[in-house]
Amino acid sequence: MPNHQSLMTNDYIRIPLNPTMKYIILLFAFAVVACNTPQQTTTTTQPQTSNPKPETKTPEPKVYHGSETMVNDLVHTKLEIKPVWEKMQVKGKATITLHPHFNPTDTLVLNARSMDISEVSMVGAAGKREFLDYSYDSLLLTIKLGRQFKRDENYTIYISYTAKPEELPDGGSAAITRDKGFYFINADGKDTDKPKQFWTQGETESNSAWFPTIDKPNQKMTQEIYITVDTPLVTVSNGLMISSVKNSDGTHTDYWKQSLPAAPYLVMVAASDFAVVKDKWRNIEVNYYLDKDYEQYARMIFGLTPEMLE
């Protein structure tokens, strides 16, 4: 046994050290202290400069975006429209079925932007129309229903109008920079490099530029649309095309029907000298509408659509 023995107490262990070990531990202790000591760049005292605290921005208050208040509920909308190319306007007839959302009401407020209103009527039995009192400020059409309706009572309003989307001021958002709803392209047909066409873009509250409605995303309705256009033009809309009737004035009227309820902003129409390439997914038609110059490339561009649907 060596002369120096380790002594254990409750607090520590004492280990005998030779001079070399003491020197190594002393160097280690110095290194630890040096690493943990703040580095001094100079021994002279420097005047203390006050560093201003970075300016803290007040957080923007959180804004609660609630759903639009529902006074009346859309049930069904029937539209009969015809473009007036030379004026870039839309002649329309809207037959709208609604009912109160919860509380009884004797008033209906519809979004209708930049329109001429010709008639507002209540459609009664056998389609008979009774004129209604209304007021219009170029944005909202406020209709007095003649009596109070309860939430389990449907009622139907007829409105004859002319929509003038080109007279609306430019508006929109960062995502959708224009909100005129209905767009004419080459309306006079003078530009030989552009097709003569119209199309709509309703998201999120722009379809009220071409038909009266409650233009809010929390509304849902079924729809049917009769579109009258010059015979060379092909129409597109929601749902299925039920019929196409030739008229004596060189136009034809296509009847489109959507049987599943959808928000008003999803209603769409378009017309142009389209080529139509037919495809199918299961037992449902999948058709591709293209400018005729691209007809031969239809399946190259859109051909994976049935697979995506699957």
Structure description:
There is one protein chain. This protein has an eight-stranded mixed sheet, with no helix packed on it. It contains three helices and 19 strands. With 310 residues, the protein is mostly beta strands. It has helices at residues 19-36, 298-302, 305-309; strands at residues 7-8, 13-14, 72-84, 89-100, 105-111, 115-123, 129-131, 134-136, 140-149, 155-163, 182-185, 197-200, 221-230, 234-237, 240-246, 251-262, 269-272, 274-281, 284-291. Residues 4-15 and 20-43 have low confidence and may be disordered. Helices cover 9% and strands 42% of the residues. The longest helix is centred in the N-terminal third of the chain and has 18 residues, at 19-36.
Protein traits:
42% strand; mainly beta; globular; four-stranded antiparallel beta sheet; single chain; 310 residues; 9% helix
